[in-house]
Amino acid sequence: MLNHLSHETSPYLLQHADNPVDWHPWNAETLRLALDLDKPILLSIGYSACHWCHVMAHESFEDEAVAAVMNEHFVNIKVDREERPDLDQIYQNAHYLLAQRSGGWPLTIFLEPDGTPFYSGTYFPKQARYGLPGFPDLLTRIAKVYQEKRGELSAQGKQLIATLASWQMVKSAEDAVLSAAPVAEAVQQHLKSFDPLHGGFGGAPKFLHPAELDLLLRQAHATHDGQTSHVALFTLRQMALGGLNDQLGGGFCRYSVDAHWDIPHFEKMLYDNGLLLGLYCDAWLSSNDPFFAHVVEQTAGWVMREMQSPQGGYYASLDADSEHEEGKFYVWQRNDIRDLLSADEYAVVKPYYGLDSTPNFENHSWNLRVAQPLAGIAQHLNISAEQASARLASAQTKLFAARERRIRPGRDEKILGSWNGLMIAGMAKAARTVNRADWLQSAQQAMDFVRGTLWQNGKLLATHKDGKTHLNAYLDDHAFLLNAALELLQTEYRSTDMAFAMQLADALLARFEDSENGGFFFTSHDHEALIQRNKTGQDDAIPSGNGIAAQGLLRLAELTGDVRYGEAAERCLKLFFPLIQRAAGQFSSLCTALGEAMQPPSMLVLCGAKNETAAWRAAVAAKYAPGLMIIELTGSETGLPAPLRKPRAATTTAWLCRGTQCLPPIYRLDELLAELV
């Protein structure tokens, strides 16, 4: 029999629709049921690509005896954290207060019928182990405590709600005076936590830190600091050489369980790869190292091959597991590789992927990573670099083809506005960096799908799957799609993208801004009332919505001349500035916005024939100026905002503006490049 999840669109919820647990989705009816029955709520939050979510499901949620205990004592609610990041944020915060440690997924949290949490954990095994109680025993103990100590739990709950409320950001009594000092402080904090041996920050497990790497690349350029540049580029190189990056098919996994980037948790998330596409483009432009261009090409190829729907939108994720085993799709036995390849190919592949050393994964298997430089292997084999490269490419083609015949990991095919914004931005930047029309078409198709499907009656919705679009969109949806529209405009100007950018920015100001204090709430003013309303600026695996909103609004103000956008960005920065001063490294995306706000914005408008303006832009881009917006116009555009309305000339013309000062028109490329030195 199916439970109450069978009509949901989330693949994660549908994975649990035939559990013997009487699961409900989070909605008003379920919450009212808990109140009517006077039962506590067991809230389980996870996502479809999560390995430990699957483990707990197989051990406990598919077990009739465990389900019977859950059904007797609790109203059981299952939430997809990707569809309801608002609930995930709130209850991860609550878990931190209750357990005095950070959370993760699955999040297992017990609530009073009104939604107030009183006990929490993450993964619980069916039988006691790992120092954790057995889940069935825990359930009966919690049910007993709930019945016998309601007064104590209620008092604890009121204190927890008050603590959550105290985290709300309000502006200082005195208007903050912005300065760029925290930007340099954030850079220094990242340099101190840098791992000089393996790249990245801190020890195992190692995460990707895209907002931090973006800030480092920008500041390395701005300050001509070789050490900062090395930290960013070395980290990006080590990540791409490691097992975190799918060496055969492209695409990065979510994080590495070790300090060497060898073994990931194997889920591939759309958001990581969208952010990394842009970072590897910047790494290439700042270093001229073709290795980074190869990573861009490999990642973009994976996106178009495996993550784009026929309708245009990008899917959410690929599972870590296949056939109930984490990583089974990706890892290899050495003999299987040897049997697929010629002797010459294997002679290159064996040292290249470290098959001549001990296995690095379970069951004496290998997760492929680059272990030795190809140039050294060629020298050892006494063959040319071209021969070694050709043999490696041939071997990779054979291995990829063989792997494609395996049972694939599941794919979460919901289309999220926020994550599509991150991937559209990455693909648009990659398209103009590499001059790939097919990548631009991919990004534009995704944006057209989002605009045509998620934007309804002047309001943005969060998710789409199987013909159903629903849920109020969040701050991240608006901010990330605004940033995506700006990246598309810099790749190929379309009036539809400009109009959508302004609609999104207007929605940010009208529906999310804290008009009294500044900054943007994570949920809109008309959103469901929950036990906490977040307004955060710290970066996580995804850059903060406030940071990206501030960046996007500053750039949109420059493009349109509409001062409302820049003023909202400044109010946001002033709200968070005292926090940024105290812990700059936690606010890298806001530091990036702060750095942009503290210097006059710069914009280059190129007008002329498409082939000529493209050549000019490529020459300018080769100088890597991350703070410079470049807009190409052919003269056929209509409805341009005032800063982009330039008179037509008989030849290609450049208008370069810094802040409120614009230079006279420039008609020669060498003169333009001289101005950009």
Q: Could you list some keywords that capture this structure?
A:
Arc Repressor Mutant, subunit A, four-stranded antiparallel β-sheet, Glycosyltransferase, Glutaredoxin, five-stranded mixed β-sheet, 20 strands, 4 domains, 677 residues, alpha+beta, 11% strand
Structure description:
The protein has 677 residues and is an alpha+beta fold. It has 25 helices and 20 strands. The strands form 6 sheets. Strands 1-3-2-4-5 form a 5-stranded mixed β-sheet, sandwiched between helices. Strands 13, 14, 15 and 16 form a 4-stranded antiparallel β-sheet that branches. It has a 4-stranded mixed β-sheet with strand order 18-17-19-20, with helices on both faces. The chain folds into 4 domains: 11-166, Glutaredoxin; 202-322 and 412-597, Glycosyltransferase (Alpha/alpha barrel), CATH 1.50.10.10; 330-405, Arc Repressor Mutant, subunit A (Orthogonal Bundle); 602-675. The mean pLDDT is 96. The protein is 50% helix and 11% strand. The chain starts with 10 loop residues before the first helix and ends with a helix. 49% of the residues are buried.
Short précis:
With 677 residues, the protein is α+β, with helices and mostly antiparallel strands. Helix content is 50%, strand content 11%.
Computed over alpha carbons, the radius of gyration is: 26 Å
- Share of helix among residues? 40-55%
Q: Which blocks of ≥5 consecutive residues have pLDDT under 50?
A: none
The dominant shape is: globular
List the total number of helices.
Answer: 25
Q: What's the mean pLDDT score?
A: 96
Q: Write down how many β-strands occur, each being a DSSP E stretch of 2 or more residues.
A: 20
> What is the beta-strand fraction?
5-15%
Biggest beta sheet summary: 5 strands, mixed
The spatial strand order of the largest sheet comes to 1-3-2-4-5
Q: Return the CATH class of the largest domain.
A: Mainly Alpha
The CATH architecture of the largest domain would be Alpha/alpha barrel
* Domain module tally: 4
Amino-to-carboxy terminus distance: 69 Å
CATH topology label of the largest domain: Glycosyltransferase
Organism: mine drainage metagenome
InterPro entries: 6-hairpin_glycosidase_sf, 6hp_glycosidase-like_sf, Ssp411, Ssp411-like_TRX, Thioredoxin-like_sf
Pfam families: Thioredox_DsbH
Protein name: Spermatogenesis-associated protein 20-like TRX domain-containing protein
